[in-house]
Amino acid sequence: QIQLMESGGGLVQAGGALRRSCYASENSQCLSSVNWYRQGPGKEREVVARIYNGDVTWYLSSVEGRFAVSRGNTRFPVYLQMTNLGPEDTAVYYCNECADWGQGTRVTVSS
What we know:
Elements: E1 4-7, E2 10-13, E3 18-24, E4 34-39, E5 46-52, E6 56-59, E7 67-71, E8 78-82, E9 91-97, E10 100-101, E11 105-110
Parallel strand pairs: 2-11
Antiparallel strand pairs: 1-3, 3-8, 4-5, 4-9, 5-6, 7-8, 9-10, 9-11
């Protein structure tokens, strides 16, 4: 089973930026999108960004224009650049493809 490993995250002040990275332990057989999810305190997990068909991207409306998902010429690593962060972005962020999930890393935005 493929393992997704994440790096990045942490504590940042409002208005700041962070970059998350997602790596795969082996070549992936998944054909669907690579996704970034988040789960804020007391909230359900929600998808915030997807990348598929090479470099086609989709964003949750509340992060569009502030977050950017990208990758190079291979399926992994996948990056999530987060800018102009606000307290509402505080959450545990997860990388996902098919049935595989990263371990999740907390992002805390202080006001």
